C-alpha cells in the first residue's frame, strides 16, 4: 500500500479504533522519516489529519498540537509571536533524500534535536505532555494537559525517541522559548579536526553562553544569541579567548549556516551510508581518524562541540558497521546508521545493539505497550 493510500484517522478516537481492530501498521506523518531504522512491512497509518492546534498560550510559552501538525506551519505561527521550539529540530529530508511535510509527532518520535541542544537541551527536555494510542487501542496520557493517567511510567520521556514502537502519538505539548534579538557566529578556518574540537571545547567552557558549536566543511563555528549589546560584547570577548586558534570572523544573523549544520547538508549529496555517532567530544576526532585508517570513514561533520559526529562511509558490505561499532563502543559511545539503502538497513542493525539487561527491559516495554506487535513492527529491533 502506498503512502497516498494510508489509513488516516481524523480523530484520536478513530485512531484508537483503527489500532484496536486492525494492524499491523507503519506509523507515518508526512513520510519524511520512513527511511530511519529498519524497513517496516506493514500498512501505513498516517497522523496527518490529527493536525489541530488545541492550545497555544504565548504568555505561558506553551503549545499543544496534534501529532500531524506541520512543523513549518507551527514554526511560522510561533515566529509571528516571537517564539520558537528551543531544540532546533533537524530536517532530515536533505540527508535522506525524502520529501513530504515534517510533523510534530515525527519530531517527538525521533527526539529530533539540532545544534542548540548543547544549551537548551534535546527535544525530550522541551516535551511536557503526550497523548497516544498503545498497541491495544487504549488512549493514554501523561504530563501537560492530561481520560487515563498511567502510574509508574514517565510516558513523555519514554515516547520521545521511541520511533513509534510503543505507541501512536496523537498529541504533543511543548514548552517554548522567545526568539533572541540577534545572534553572532564566530568562524575559524583552517583548523584540523582535533584542533577544531579543542577550540569548541574552550568556547563551550567560556562564560559567554554558546548556543551552537560545530565543525563542518572546513569551518569551526561558535554561536552566541541574545540581546544585541550583549551579543556584541560576548562575541568580541570570545574572539579574544580563541585567538590562539586563529583570527575568528564574526558573522551576524546567519541562519543558513546553522541550518546546514542542523541538517548535515554537507554530506547530503555524497554517495554512501551516513552514521550518527555519540561520543565524548575529545574522542570524536580520534575515532574518526582510526576509522579512516581502517577504510571505514570518508568525511565527517561535528556538532554539539564534537559530541555528535555525522560520518560518511562506503555502503559496501556492512557499511562499516563492525569497525564503527567496535571503535565507538571502545570509547563508551554509540552509533546509529542514519542513512542507507533498504538492503543495508535489513542486514545491519540501524540502532546500536543494547547490552542484554537493557535489551530485556526494551523487550518488556514493547510487550507491555504493544503485546501483539502492531505498531512499527521491526523498526527498532527484528
TrEMBL record:
In this chain the FAD-binding PCMH-type domain maps to 1-179
Molecular functions (GO terms): catalytic activity; FAD binding
Q: According to its UniProt record, what is one Pfam family this protein matches?
A: FAD_binding_4
Recorded coiled-coil stretches = none
Q: Which UniProt keywords apply?
A: FAD, Flavoprotein
- Designated name of the protein: Glycolate oxidase FAD binding subunit
Amino acid at each position: 500500500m502506498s503512502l497516498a493510500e494510508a489509513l488516516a484517522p481524523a480523530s484520536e478516537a478513530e485512531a484508537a479504533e483503527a489500532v484496536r481492530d486492525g494492524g499491523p501498521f507503519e506509523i507515518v506523518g508526512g513520510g519524511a522519516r520512513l527511511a530511519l531504522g529498519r524497513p517496516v512491512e506493514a500498512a501505513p497509518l498516517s497522523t496527518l489529519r490529527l493536525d489541530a492546534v488545541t492550545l497555544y498560550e504565548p504568555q505561558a510559552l506553551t503549545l499543544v498540537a496534534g501529532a500531524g501538525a506541520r512543523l513549518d506551519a507551527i514554526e511560522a505561527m510561533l515566529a509571528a509571536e516571537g517564539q520558537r521550539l528551543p531544540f532546533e529540530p533537524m530536517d532530515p529530508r536533505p540527508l535522506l533524500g525524502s520529501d513530504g511535510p515534517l510533523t510534530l509527532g515525527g519530531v517527538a518520535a525521533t527526539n529530533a534535536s539540532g545544534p542548540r541542544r548543547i544549551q537548551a537541551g534535546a527535544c525530550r527536555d522541551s516535551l511536557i505532555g503526550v497523548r497516544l494510542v498503545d498497541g491495544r487501542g487504549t488512549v493514554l496520557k501523561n504530563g501537560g494537559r492530561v481520560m487515563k493517567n498511567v502510574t509508574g511510567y514517565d510516558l513523555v520521556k519514554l515516547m520521545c525517541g521511541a520511533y513509534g514502537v510503543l505507541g501512536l502519538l496523537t498529541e504533543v505539548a511543548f514548552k517554548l522559548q522567545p526568539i533572541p534579538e540577534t545572534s553572532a557566529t564566530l568562524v575559524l578556518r583552517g583548523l584540523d579536526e582535533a584542533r577544531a574540537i579543542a577550540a569548541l571545547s574552550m568556547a563551550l567552557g567560556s562564560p559567554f553562553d554558546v548556543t551552537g558549536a560545530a565543525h563542518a566543511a572546513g569551518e569551526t563555528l561558535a554561536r552566541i544569541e541574545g540581546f544585541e549589546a550583549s551579543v556584541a560584547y560576548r562575541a568580541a570577548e570570545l574572539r579574544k579567548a580563541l585567538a590562539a586558534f586563529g583570527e575568528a570572523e564574526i558573522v551576524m544573523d546567519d541562519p543558513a549556516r546553522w541550518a546546514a549544520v542542523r541538517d548535515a547538508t554537507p554530506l547530503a549529496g555524497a554517495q554512501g551510508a551516513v552514521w550518527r555517532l555519540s561520543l565524548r567530544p575529545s574522542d570524536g576526532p580520534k575515532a574518526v581518524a582510526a576509522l579512516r585508517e581502517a577504510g571505514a570513514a570518508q568525511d565527517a561533520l561535528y556538532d554539539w562541540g564534537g559530541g555528535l559526529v555525522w560520518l560518511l562511509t562506503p555502503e559496501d558490505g556492512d557499511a562499516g558497521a563492525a569497525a564503527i561499532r567496535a571503535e565507538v563502543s571502545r570509547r563508551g559511545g554509540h552509533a546509529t546508521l542514519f542513512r542507507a539503502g533498504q538492503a543495508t538497513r535489513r542486514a545491519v542493525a540501524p540502532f546500536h545493539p543494547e547490552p542484554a539487561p537493557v535489551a530485556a527491559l526494551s523487550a518488556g516495554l514493547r510487550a507491555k505497550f504493544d503485546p501483539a506487535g502492531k505498531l512499527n513492527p521491526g523498526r527498532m529491533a527484528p
